[in-house]
Hints:
24% helix, single chain, 7 strands
Amino acid sequence: xxxxxxxxxxxxxxxxxxxxxxxxxxxxxxxxxxxxxxxxxxxxxxxxxxxxxxxxxxxxxxxxxxxxxxxxxxxxxxxxxxxxxxxxxxxxxxxxxxxxxxxxxxxxxxxxxxxxxxxxxxxxxxxxxxxxxxxxxxxxxxxxxxxxxxxxxxxxxxxxxxxxxxxxxxxxxxxxxxxxxxxxxxxx
Length: 188
């Protein structure tokens, strides 16, 4: 995987789809037509500590790396314009999927990012990982995306791709729940 820093001031530069940033608000009516949609929401726990730990884990690639996903990038955290090559699978079956971060959030009640596909990615579209702190103190991870196959083997996989995406999103929630709880434990 190429981890060179080809950061750009234009986060939409080189993307393989129109509508960069459509996952920011999570309103699927803003997604481009002809793309499959995904929205998976997982409760992580409650309280500001959980929110801060989960937001930090998402923004610093820790959640992805804890899942065994390769995140090759020269940047220590998600920032608009940063290039990242996502690595899924193992050995000769490992897929290298180049993306560019198109937006980030790092506020009092919302933290996360969305990245879009670059040439060489097997899909075309955008995916977002957003941690939110509700008024009642509940902390949630929402994974949302729109995508469509870009290469022949992704098209041939047909209905398996959305199933894989849903399982991946659920795994993100489970891993992030574990990471945010572990950060609250006292250290010996």
